[in-house]
């Protein structure tokens, strides 16, 4: 799906937990997530920590949208 959207001229970032699968289907910009049921957080952590985790990952994804790339790229999440 991401390939078709990009063929239409729309830059897209895929946020995924299963990195090898996303690479196999041809995702160009990829941001890793935390887990399958909770991709952007961990419900066992305090609410403030949840907000920090989610905001940071979405920020990485937004930065990935504006980063020129020549080949499929995995954007590392450092926190």
Task: Walk me through what this model shows.
By secondary structure, the protein is an alpha/beta fold. The chain has one domain. It contains three helices and three strands; from the N terminus they run αβαβαβ. A three-stranded parallel sheet has the order 1-2-3. Helix 2 links the parallel strand 1 and strand 2. The protein is elongated, with a radius of gyration of 13 Å. The protein starts with a helix and ends in a 5-residue tail after the last strand. The mean pLDDT is 91.
- Describe the sheet with the most strands: 3 strands, parallel
The residue fraction in helices comes out at 40-55%
Q: What is the residue-mean pLDDT, rounded to a whole number?
A: 91
Distance between the termini: 29 Å
- Write down the overall geometry: elongated
Give the strand order, joined by hyphens, for the main sheet. 1-2-3
Number of beta strands: 3
Which radius of gyration do the C-alpha atoms yield? 13 Å
Give the uncertain stretches in residue-range form.
none
Contiguous helical run count: 3
Give the helix/strand class.
Answer: alpha/beta
Strand content: 5-15%
Order of helices and strands: HEHEHE
The number of domains: 1
Keywords:
alpha/beta; single chain; 79 residues; 3-stranded parallel sheet
């Amino acid at each position: 799906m991401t390939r078709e959207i990009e063929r239409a001229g729309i830059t897209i970032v895929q946020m995924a937990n299963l990195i090898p699968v996303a690479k196999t289907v041809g995702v160009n910009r990829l941001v890793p997530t935390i887990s399958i049921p909770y991709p952007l957080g961990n419900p066992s952590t305090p609410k403030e920590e949840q907000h920090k985790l989610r905001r940071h990952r979405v920020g990485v994804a937004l930065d990935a949208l504006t980063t020129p790339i020549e080949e499929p790229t995995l954007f590392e999440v450092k926190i």
